[in-house]
Description:
The protein has three domains: 48-378, Beta Barrel (Catalase HpII,  Chain A, domain 1); 454-530, Catalase, four-helical domain (Hemocyanin, N-terminal domain, Up-down Bundle), CATH 1.20.1370.20; 534-672, Rossmann fold. Helix content is 27%, strand content 17%. It contains 18 helices and 20 strands. One of its GO terms (molecular function) is metal ion binding.
Amino acid sequence: MSDKKKVDKQSKDEQLEHYRREDSGKHLTTNQGLKMSEDEFSLKAGERGPTLMEDFHFREKMTHFDHERIPERVVHARGFAAHGEFELYKSLEKYTKADFLTDTSKKTPVFTRFSTVAGNRGSSETVRDARGFATKFYTEEGNYDLVGNNIPVFFIQDAIKFPDLVHALKPEPHNEMPQAASAHDTFWDFIANNQESAHMVMWAMSDRAIPRSFRMMEGFGVHTFRLVNAEGKSHFVKFHWKPVLGTHSLVWDEAQKISGKDADFHRGDLYSSIENGDYPEYELGIQVIPEEDEDKFEFDVLDPTKLWPEEDVPVEIVGKLTLNRNVDNVFAETEQVAFHPGHVVPGIDFTNDPLLQGRLFSYTDTQLIRLGGPNFHELPINRPVCPFFNNQRDGYGRQTINTGQVSYHKNSLAQNTPEPAAPEEGGYEHYHEKVEGRKIRARSVSFKDHFSQATLFWNSMSEPEKDHLIQAFSFELGKLESDSVRKQVIEMFSNVSLDLVQGVAKNIGITPPEHGGSDVTKSSPALSQQNTVFKPDTRVVGVIVADNFAGSEVTNVLEGLADKGMSPVVISTRQGTLKGADGTELTVDHTFTTVDPVLLDAVYVAGGGEQSKAFRKKVSYYLNEAFTHFKPIGATHEGIQLLQDNELLEEPGVVAEENGVEFVSKFTEAVAAHRHWDRQVI
C-alpha cells in the first residue's frame, strides 16, 4: 500500500498531531509553579459578589494576556474613529446624578471608535466578527467611557476566561492562520467545550456580524451597570445605541468580495459620510430595572451572556450622538485613544458582573504596555476637558511639569492640596452595596442556563435571517479539519434548535441529530433586522451611463435621487465627460475598473445610444452581481433593454420606468428596502 493510501485511511483527528501539547496530562500551574485547583472562575465575595483583588491567579493570567502583543491592541486593533457631540433629550435625574445625563442644555463632546475584534491592524474590515463601539464623553465632571460592542452579549461569563477565548479565536500559532476569521478548529473547539458561548455565537453567525457600515449598526454597553441618583437610589441599566438609519448588513458573499476589492470599506464609508456632511447619528437608549426587581426575571440580570428582551424591559430613548468631524491624525487620535470601562463620573457605577469586574483591571493594565506607561491620560485625545489634580508623578511619557515640593496626601506644607471632594461637592462615591460571602472560585447557579436565549434569538429571526445563520454555521464548520469538533458543535447547538443543526449537518456531511431542540417558544421581534428602520438616505447608487444618453431626462433622475437623500455616482467605460443626445454633459465619477458592484447599495442603468460590446458585458456583470446580492436595480431609457437582455425584468426589487418622476418614486422605495430577499437566487 502506498504511503498516500496509508494516510488516507487514517482519520483526520489522527493526522492533527500539531494540536498535541508538550504538557499533555500535566497539572495546571501558575507561572511560579503553584498548582491551581480552578481555572474557570475568579475569586469572589460570594457566588454573585465582586471579584477580589487578592485573586493572584486571575491577575497573573490577565496581566500576561494583556501584555502579549505590542504595540497594537491585543483585540480591537483594526479601528477607525470620529469626533462628535452628545445631546440629551430629557433629564435622567430620577435615575442618575451624572451631569451630562441630567442637563439638557449641554452638548457633550465625544470621541467614538469603531473596530473589528479579532484581526490585526492590517486585516480587512468586512470579516465576520463582532464590532467594537466605544465612546468617550468629555464631560465637565471628567471623562466617561462607554466601551461596548455591536452585539449585546458576550462569549464568556467571567473575565478569567478572556485570555482563553482570544487565544482560541486568534490565528492558530503554528501557522498564524486564518487572519481575522473564526472558521478554524481552535475557535470552535473552545465553543464546543465552553457552552456559555452559545448565545453570542448565534449573534456572531447572524447578519449582525457583517454590518453594512458603522453608520448602520447598533451599539450596546453589554454589561449591566448602575445608575445612582442624588438620593443614593440605585437602578440597574443597560445602554443601547440605535442608528438613525436603521440596522443593516451585508450578505456573506458580498462581504468576502469587498475584503478583496476594498479592505478599508467601513472606514472609507464613515470618513466620506462625515466629509460629505451626512453625519452619522445614533440615539442613546437605556433599559432600567429597579434594584429591588433584580430577581424577578427568568435570567440573571448580571449575566453578560444574557440580554434583557426589549418587550420585557423597554428601551427608553434619551439622547442623540452625532459624529461630525473626522480625525486630523489617525495615529495620534484613533490609535492612542485609551478607553476604560472604569472611567466613570458621579451617578454611574458598576455591578458584580464578573466579566465587567475583570475588565476594570484589564484595561489599565493593557494601556501600560501599549502606550508606554502610566501617563496615557496626558495624550491630547485622552485628556479630560475639565482640570485634574492629584499627587501622581513621573513615569514614561510625563508631560506635566509639576512644581512645588509636596506630592503626597495628607500634607500640611501645601495646606493639604489637592484635597478630596465630598459627594455634595461632586466627589465620586461608590454605591454602598452590601457585600458578604465566603471567598470562593465559583459561579452562581443562576448563570447556568446557556441555551434559552440562544433559542430566543433563533425564534426571533425572519426566514432569510435563519437561512443566513444556517449558511454561516455551514461555512465556518465546513472549514474545520477536525470531524470531532464539527460533531461536538452540532451536538451543542441541538440544544438551541433542531431546524438549525439539521440544516447545518446536512450541508457539512454529518448525520443530522433526530433528538434535541428546545421548548422555548418566546421570541423578541426587536432582535430581527426585518423590524429596523428603512431609509434610502446616504445609499450609494451606481449610475451606469454611455455616450448619447437621454440627456436632461437622465440628469433629472439623478437630481431626483439626490433629493431623496441618495448618493448617485456615475460609472462608464472611461473617465471624463459624457454627452447626452441633447448636448447635456455628465461627469464620470468612476470607470468599471475603479468601482465594483459590491461597493454599491444599488445599481441604476441609464444606458445610452452608443453602447459598445465591452459596455454591455460590464453592465451584465454589474446587474448580475447586484441581483445575486439582493440589491435594488433600476433602469430607464436604453437601460430597460439591458435589463431585458439579462432576463431581470419583473423580478422583485427591479424597477424599469420610462417616466423619470415615476422611476424616482418607485426606485426610492426599492432602495429603502435595503435587500429584496424574495428573489430566486441560485
